[in-house]
Structures are given as C-alpha cells and as structure tokens.
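Quick question about two entries, pasted in order.
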Amino acid sequence: MENKWLTIQSFEKNQNLLELINKLLIHFKLNEKGIDAQMSDDEIDESKRALTNFLKKLNFQIHGIESGSDTLTGIDSRSRKLIRNFMEARNRGTKFKSILFKSSPSKVLEILNSNDKEEKAQLINSLTELRGLLEDHVAFDAQDLIGEI
C-alpha cells in the first residue's frame, strides 16, 4: 500500500509541475508572437518559483550523483526514478537535445527570466523536453495505479 501511496504522490506532484510548465510555455510562446497570454504576473511568478524549486533540487541531486555523493538517500523511489530517467536521457542524447539535457538545470535557471530571443527559444525547447520526460513519468505512474486497460 505504501508503494501505491508514493505513486499517487508522484502522480499528483508531477501533474502539478506539468500544469505550471504548460502555463509558462503558453505564456512564452504567445509573448514571442506578440500576443497577450492573459495570465496574471502572480500566476507567471508562481509558476517560475515552482519550476525554480524543482530545477534547483534536480540540479543538486544530479551534481551530487556526478561527484560521487549519495544525494538520493532519503528520497522516495518515484523521485529517484525520475532523476535516473533524467540522467539516462542526458547520457543518451538522442531524443533530448536542449540545454537542460546538454548542460544542466542550472543553465535553464540562468535564462528563466531572460528577454534575449535566442535564450527564450532555448528555454522553450528545454521546458518542452522536460515536459516530455515528465509526461512519460506520469504515464508510468498512471499505468501503475490503474493497470493496463
């Protein structure tokens, strides 16, 4: 039962993160086209804060693993799986080619508030790929919860 509970928590947490990423992507893409996304500054700031927290934690975990520290101690199995999936995707480099995967989450944090057109395109690409990784992770959670239909 505890395993199912962790899967439920993972599903909910990642669904919320996906929602925030989608808000940011809509905002950035519409602004790029000169269209008002009709989202409040508070909504955008909240999404950026949540994404920043996630990316900082991810960066800390990855940096720790790469330097030989056991930074995954105390982290639930679903979060560990997401971190491992990120690192595997990064090492494969075939599907994921954004700066998030080629460089690090800290690079995305550096450009999160940039107004530079090229950096904004890199940010959109990174968030799109992160969304894809999270969608795969959420799909696995959903399959584990519901079973194959």
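Here is the second entry:
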Amino acid sequence: MGSAKKKQRRMDNQILGQFFIESQAGRARLKDVEEVKDILLKLGEPFTGIITDRELFYFFLIFSWNLSFAPEEKVAEELDNFLKPYEQLGEGFHKASRELILSIAQRKKQLFPQEHYTFGSLAPGEN
C-alpha cells in the first residue's frame, strides 16, 4: 500500500473513530469494522468528486444511511433538522445538499437492502 493510501486510511480511521454502528448484536466502533467502512466507501463512490472534504463526505454518507430507515413521512423533517445549521450557506447549498442526501439514501436502499444497522456518534471521550 502506497504512502498516500496509508495516509488516507489513517485519516479515514480518525474520522470514523467518532462513530459506532448500532445493530441487534450491539455496538461496535466503526473504525474497527473494516467491512462496514468498505460498504460506506462503495456507497459514496459516485459522490467523491462532489464532496471533497473527507469528514463532510462521511458525515453525509452516515446521515443518508440512517435517513434511509426513516418513515417516508419523517424524511423531510429529518432533512430540515440536519441542514438547519447550514442555513447561512444559502438556498443553493440547502437544495443541492438535500438532493445529494436523498440520492445517497436511495442508493443505500438499492445497493444494501440487507444491511439493517444504523450509525451513531460517540460523545467526546466515550469509548
């Protein structure tokens, strides 16, 4: 593995270390679950050129993944709550982000219908 790939994997692990997966089997730190990281990367493949900030990339992927489990009548509300902190970036950003998130959530349903776990965020200092 080249130096750039190692550096990228280390950065991915730092970002993903903030999250865990929640399933019937319990909780697992995301950075320790290689298979899930690979699934997230496959999910996000078409969007890597759109979201160039790696942390934001994973944040959108994880939110979109979780959104795919929301009841249809709650999706708009969940999206509005998620995008509320970004209101100052303007209507263009809001609209583009909304479309992107819905596209990722739909892709999750198509590619990974058998995956039924969700992601959570660890509080600072939580293990």
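Reply: The mean pLDDT is 83. Helices lie at 3-16, 34-44, 54-67, 75-83, 91-111. Hope that helps.
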